[in-house]
């Protein structure tokens, strides 16, 4: 079948545009915004957040000049002049002091009414695999502070009394002072902390049962530079866009394009053009998802070997499929059957590993139930469409078979 020249030209333009995006330097610039907290600035603070309007140090003095003696030793004995104090997010204020032996004293404070407040340390800005200190006062007014290991997004996967924070022998403390809750703990790290991903979250509902955390009401992830007291806000929309593009490409468009040649072959040549256009659209979205993944890896150090490796493998399979489009033999070529097998099985492998990588991405990112339900819905719709089309296909084959003329036995003369 001859391929229209305009279709080939359009395809080359799309592929060339995507390759250009891969090398364009502006496409891999991190979408972060840095806020440097200088101790001699005249910027006031409102509700514990950094603002740029007005003058004076009343807000900072109120937040960072609080006498910490109510925490008791050793936290209450530390001079506020020796501690770095930095508003970090919302009403959260982080105080810390790092000794030469890499022992760090950390005091987190925030406005508190009910529920819990937590600070987590992450390797890459993601919740999965991080460790957090969480403090609260229960309904009876008893103070509680525990370390948690964040194994997953579900409440049952946030495990109390586990974690990788190297706490030393000094018991952590949680205390109420005015409208603020204070979490204080010490940890001895192997190396002096510099730029470190920090997770911050709070929930207004009390932990349940055996200190199982309830779902947070709000959360954020930031890069915090302990050597310079600067906050680098992680643009979580990049992760979301990466997931949406991958879900649309490998969860919806590419499976839909694969369905077309199986059930619309009788609509020749319509099925061919539909298949090609849909698959190229899916390839572009999948490539954009990979580019965002590279950007996340560079800006957040989001090193997830399994997810990244499968993503690269799927991208290679996709590129081979695009190349196969331009190398497609004619129908009467003796190599056509080998090309058909190659195209079929490489496409199936790409779809399988693409779907697998969606599941891994949702798991590693600690995405909520909305993502799982959304992808499950796409899978259910795809399966339903396949069942319906397979039924119609079987009915059509039976109908065509019944319309064939019967064979007549000819007597030899």
From TrEMBL:
Residues 90-203 form the DOMON domain. One of its GO terms (cellular component) is membrane. Its main location: membrane. It is found in: Membrane. Residues 1-25 form the signal peptide. Residues 208-398 form the Cytochrome b561 domain. Gene3D superfamilies: 1.20.120.1770. Keywords: Electron transport, Membrane, Signal, Transmembrane, Transmembrane helix, Transport. The keyword Nucleotide-binding does not apply. It comes from the Eukaryota. The keyword Transmembrane helix applies. The chain crosses the membrane at residues 243-264, 271-297, 309-328, 349-367, 373-392. InterPro entries: Cyt_b561/ferric_Rdtase_TM, DOH_DOMON, DOMON_domain. It holds the Pfam family Cytochrom_B561. This is Cytochrome b561 and DOMON domain-containing protein. It comes from Gossypium mustelinum.
